[in-house]
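## retry 2 of 3
previous attempt timed out at serialization; input unchanged, resubmitting
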Amino acid sequence: MAGLADSGSNPDVDLLYDINGLAKDAPAWFDRVMEYVGEYGLLLAIVLLVVWCWWSVRRRGDEDAASTVAALVWAPLAAGMAVLVNVPIRGFVERPRPFLDHQGLEVLVQGKTDYSFVSDHATIVMAMAVGLFVAHRRFGLVALVLALFGGFIRVYMGVHYPTDVVGGFALGTAVALLLSPLAMALLTPLVKAVERSPRLGWFVRAGGPAERDDAVIPEARSERTSERDLAA
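## retry succeeded, writing output
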């Protein structure tokens, strides 16, 4: 399994050199930007998308806010579970980093000593993107585009084969989707309980449960006022 890409004629290796070759032709400052984006930037961007989606959902306070927030909570949990699933996979495959087996690569990040397949970065960003897509289509589509770009950058940086990234995408997607029904069955009642809490209800709806009560009370008052006016 470690020799998945031992031959230079392997399409996986050819694509690695093609994509990583872009880093050789790019200015040094651009490579530094790509290094930061690939290591931290895209993951941070997807996390901010999840937070932005949560803020938008709680501010609107729709009837399905609790289920949407539960799905948003599942997004980072799915990423964490996918990484845990990846631990035995990497130990079983034991695929070295591409720069250890192939010469002439432009490696933008030094010190990578762990195994290459499956890519943790690709797994995390795709699991979060798919989880966000389950919660909210528009935000999820943006996250999916960012995740795909993140996979490209990992190859550009010379730290992963293309199949490492594809494997990460598949693993992240599988965990986020296959475990989603169970996660929602457990998280939705919990989030609904939080929604009813006077102190924690703000996490699901802006203003918490008091805001909903206020929305009903004035209406009831207006009905009683109308009745008194008719009686008069």
